[in-house]
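Internal ticket - ligand job 306, S-adenosylmethionine:
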Amino acid sequence: MRAILMSEAPAPQWHQPVMGAEVLQALTPRPGAIVVDGTLGMGGHGVMILPRLLPNGRLVGIERDQDALELARKRLADFEPQVTLIRENYRQLPTILQDLGIPRVDGLLLDLGMSSLQVDRAERGFSFSREGPLDMRMDRGQEATAEAIVNELAADDLARLLETLGEERFARRIARAIVRAREDRRLTTTTQLARVVAEAVPPTARHGRLHAATRTFQALRMAVNDELGALETLLGHLDAVLSSGGRAVVLTFHSLEDRLVKHAFLSGAREHRWTVLTKKPVRPSPVEVARNPRARSAKLRAIEKR
Ligand SMILES: C[S@@+](CC[C@H](N)C(=O)[O-])C[C@H]1O[C@@H](n2cnc3c(N)ncnc32)[C@H](O)[C@@H]1O
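stdout (structure tokens):
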């Protein structure tokens, strides 16, 4: 009972998960089902899904960020026997399930991108407006950081990275400015890099809706964490991990991510492996976008396995 009350009235300090109602509608978690949240974060979606799985279902929460996982553990403590939390990359899903003795699952959710925890903590280096180290690792056990990319990649490779992952129009100018700046001294902090980027773009781009460094930071974050690689790998495992009637729901925030999901879903549908439940991606309501600007670019796509 306490668990149910908790889900109805989340503690005010937790951020609302993006498109919570739409995720539940697409995922249709039912009593007894086994659902994987591959990007558990601080458990925002998890805490909404869990009451629907009671009394004997199970949520397997996967998260590569130790800090987020610990917060989620506290938040989901009331559901204890129904929750299994794993610190891993979701790209390892088949192995994770094998280790847990779970042949297939009824639901899978991915809510891509970074969590508010990562952005809010200056020392994690995700935010251009908070002075911190150029880190950006979701999994702090891994070696590669944003600092290594910014200081060691050749100008052409850096420009290509900013162009593809950041969709940055001024990629070449920014890459050249970074290389010039690092000849003076190694770039080690977020605000140092943000300044270099802001000075590299034309003045008109300096005062737009987005901060001039938004796309550069996005590209670096996606590269450091190989976000597209993980997504592509997971999409390749979908058929093997979903049970018949099982659903996968993916929330993307970037056109390259959305393209990967869209194509994987369409190609599986052509091969009669599943049905696409979202002809067009579902978008957040204007009310949600007004309340939570992070939801602005969210696109939800879902499939049901045959
Ligand atoms: C947008 S947040 C999820 C927020 C969560 N749905 C909530 O409501 O609290 C995305 C989370 O996924 C994690 N993540 C991203 N890629 C991952 C991967 N390949 N494997 C495991 N976790 C990943 C990030 O560390 C981050 O905490």
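Auto-summary: Residues 140-224 form a domain with the DNA polymerase; domain 1 fold (CATH 1.10.150.170). Strands lie at 34-37, 58-63, 83-87, 105-111, 242-252, 274-276, 299-305.
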